Amino acid sequence: TNGMRAEYKYADLKKIFGSDWGTFSSNPAPSITSVSPTSVMLNQSVTITVRGSGFVKNASQVHLNGSSLVTTYVSATELRAVVPSSATVRNGSMSISVWNPSPGWGDFEQS
């Protein structure tokens, strides 16, 4: 079966590359403590700063109302993301979340 073949290949790779082959660590669960600025001008793009914990370089992604934003990793406790002007065309609140991909813990949201 395919499962047996995959296991066989894994065993061969483990022999070739050593006992650490196939050891994976999970991405931490992200947590948001603050987002700034707390308000934005209508019809203008803005760079937001998201502070918290569990952010992962080259992995964590800031989302606005469920859509991913261009995100810059600053540190394990800070991300920056660009909110496009098309997202600021109406008054109202926005939902900001941070997502860590697999292997990981999903997302954390702050409205």
In words, what does this structure look like?
The protein contains 1 helix and 8 strands; from the N terminus they run αββββββββ. The protein is mainly beta. The strands form 2 sheets. A 4-stranded antiparallel beta sheet has the order 1-2-6-5, with no helix packed on it. Mean pLDDT is 78; it is low at 1-10.
Topology:
Layout: H1 2-17, E1 31-36, E2 46-53, E3 61-64, E4 67-68, E5 70-75, E6 78-83, E7 96-100, E8 106-110
Antiparallel strand pairs: 1-2, 2-6, 3-4, 3-7, 5-6, 7-8
Characteristics:
8 strands, single chain, mainly beta, 111 residues, four-stranded antiparallel beta sheet
Q: What is the structural class?
A: mainly beta
Tell how many strands the DSSP assignment holds.
8
Report the sheet-strand fraction: 35-45%
Query: Ends: how far apart?
Result: 48 Å
Roughly what percent helix? 10-25%
Outline the low-pLDDT stretches. 1-10
Strand order of the largest sheet: 1-2-6-5
Brief overview:
The chain is mainly β. 14% of the residues lie in helices and 38% in strands.
